[in-house]
Please model this.
Amino acid sequence: MLRNGLEPWHLLIVALVVIVLFGSKRLPDTARALGKSMRILKSETKAMKDETARDEPAARPVVEPTEVRPGPAAP
Model:
C-alpha cells in the first residue's frame, strides 16, 4: 500500500492542495517566513553547539605531585 508513496503525481496533488488552501498571494509570504525561521533555527543551533564546545574543559596538562617538606616548628 505505501510501497509507491512518493510518486510525482502525489507531490503534484499535495502542491495543488497547498495552493488551494493558502492561495497564490500568501504563498510567497509564507515561504519567506519559513525561510527566516529556518535561518534563525540554524543560527541558534550553531550558537548552542559553539557554546557547548567552549564549555568543555581543554585537555589539562598532567601535574606531577610535589614532595611536601615540614617547615620550622612554631614556638
Q: What stands out?
A: The mean pLDDT is 80. Residues 27-55 form the longest helix (29 residues). Residues 30-55 form one domain. The helical segments are 8-22, 27-55.
